[in-house]
């Protein structure tokens, strides 16, 4: 769970360096996707190994933190409350994926019976 202090630390890091001026939604979305690609790169060529070993975990921590940092920055620049948007999305997904239909299934909501 991200605490308010952690979120504020990310924002203070940005503000202390006067970087908000560079953080447009477009550029943050690009950066977020670049970091997500670096996260994916950890598993590139791993074959059937989809679990994290110790070497992968060290890289995973850094890349996941980068992705989360850009999510925090994007929410801040766009004036979005992270708790609010996450709860709204979970509520939407609960309606699309009712437990009685979705439990144990990887099917898309349009395919659930």
Question: Which terms would index this structure?
Answer:
113 residues, mainly alpha, Helix Hairpins, 2 domains, 5 helices, 65% helix, 0% strand
Blueprint (SSEs and pairs):
Elements: H1 4-16, H2 25-41, H3 54-78, H4 82-96, H5 99-102
Helix pairs in contact: 2-3
Could you characterize what this model shows?
This protein is an all-alpha fold. The longest helix is centred in the middle third of the chain and has 25 residues, at 54-78. The protein has helices spanning 4-16, 25-41, 54-78, 82-96, 99-102. It has 5 helices and no strands. The chain is globular and about 50 Å long. Helix 2 packs antiparallel against helix 3 (54-78).
* Rg measurement, Å: 17 Å
Provide the low-confidence segments as ranges: none
Helix content: 55-70%
Could you state the CATH homologous superfamily of the largest domain?
MazG-like
Number of helices: 5
CATH topology of the largest domain: Helix Hairpins
Q: Number of domains in the coordinates?
A: 2
Structure in a nutshell:
By secondary structure, the protein is mostly helical. The chain has 5 helices and no strands.
């Amino acid at each position: 769970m991200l605490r308010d202090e952690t979120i504020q630390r990310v924002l203070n890091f940005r503000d202390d360096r006067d970087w908000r001026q560079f953080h447009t939604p477009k550029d943050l979305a690009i950066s977020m996707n670049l970091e997500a690609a670096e996260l994916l790169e950890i598993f590139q060529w791993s074959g059937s190994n989809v679990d994290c070993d110790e070497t992968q975990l060290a890289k995973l921590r850094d890349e996941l933190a980068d992705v989360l940092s850009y999510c925090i920055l994007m929410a801040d620049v766009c004036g979005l409350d992270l708790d609010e948007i996450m709860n709204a999305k979970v509520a939407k997904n609960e309606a699309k994926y009712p437990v009685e239909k979705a439990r144990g299934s990887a099917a898309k909501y349009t395919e659930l019976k």
